[in-house]
Amino acid sequence: MKGLVYGGDGRRSWMEVPDAEVRDARDAVIRVDAVTICGTDLHILQGDVPETAPGRVLGHEAVGTVVELGPAVSGLTVGDRVLASCISACGSCRFCRERAFGQCRSGGGWILGHTIDGVQSEYARIPFADLSTYRLPSRVSSENAVLLADILPTSYEVGVLNGRVRPGDTVVIVGAGPIGLAAVLTARLYSPAHIVVIDKAESRLQAAKNLGADVTLTPERVPLGAIRALTGGLGADVVMEAVGTPQTFELCTDLVRPGGTVANIGVHGKPVTLHLEELWIRNVTITTGLVDTYSTPRLLDMLVAGQLDVTPLITHRFGLDEMERAYDVFADPARTGALKVMLTR
Questions:
Q1: Entry pTM
Q2: What is the domain range of residue 339?
Q3: Alpha-carbon separation of residue 282 from 77, 231, 275, 286 (angstroms)
């Protein structure tokens, strides 16, 4: 079979790799029917995730059809169409019992495309398949379901819920990539008074408007003054960092009001300065986190009910064998306007 292999130092290749196979009694093997590329994959290529070794098949967001099951997998049958979660959960360690599946200490957590081969391939092995996949109803498309593998639960859990968004809040989202735009969608569920999105790219700011942001700004438009004008001089109740750079994190701490929350979602590959000499007296809460995906069943219910429309997030479509071209498009959004790229069999 073929897969997208990380070669180190920014190198990647769509090439022949060993066939996916059941190695543990709780494994499943899926035929990958739809898969996408995540900003975290680009961070890996940039060397920001040193745990990922050259030779690894990347990817952690896919929908597939079960073709093989280990003897201990329950609740699945060959032929089922399933969402493969970006997080694998053993279900029995301390953290899994607390629904903190991202911190699994028994071989789970974020492993797909990170410490084991991922899903940007023709077939993929899914560990702990009974707890790490979700059977999909026929009325949910594979393309839409893929967006629930990572970006929707990440924006919802690490951004909206960690940020404690409440009705009437002013919410600022720094970064209008796929995660930031998914945060717009999920923050709207809590009826904030204002959703402000900050990004350099006008095309992404327009996408944010289309999804429900009522104010959009570029970093050059003096966002601090604009946010204070919007909030009577206080600052934002919740600020979400959805980029992963020192500059954007510091901007978030500037924009938050006293007693507000900065929810960091972005993947950081470099140290960030934390100005505690300024923040301690303002009662600011800063949260971080890896997604746990405990919200995936609820988000799937909302998708089925038509309460979440994720289709605008998909801007480009490719065949599975066009993986390298899809990476080129996704990695250059300023030129291509790419949000999420979708690859299907």
A1: 0.95
A2: 2-149+292-344
A3: 54, 16, 11, 12
277 and 296 share a domain? no
Q: By the 8 A CB rule, do 225 and 156 touch?
A: no
Instruction: Find the CATH number of the domain harbouring 218.
Output: 3.40.50.720
Supply 269's token pair: 């590959």
Can you tell me the distance from the alpha carbon of 263 to that of 248, in angstroms, rounded to the nearest whole number? 12
pLDDT tens-digit readout, 43-56: 999 998 999 999 99
Number of domains in the chain: 2
Q: What is the widest separation between alpha-carbon atoms in the chain?
A: 61
Tokens linked to 49: 């995730």
Q: Residue 294, exposed/middle/buried by CB under 10 A (0-12, 13-18, 19+)?
A: middle
Q: Which two tokens stand for residue 302?
A: 């909302």
> What is the tens place of the pLDDT at every residue in 30-43?
999 999 999 999 99
Residues with Cβ within 8 Å of 129's Cβ and at least 6 positions away in sequence, in order, are 26, 27, 28, 66, 69, 70, 73, 76
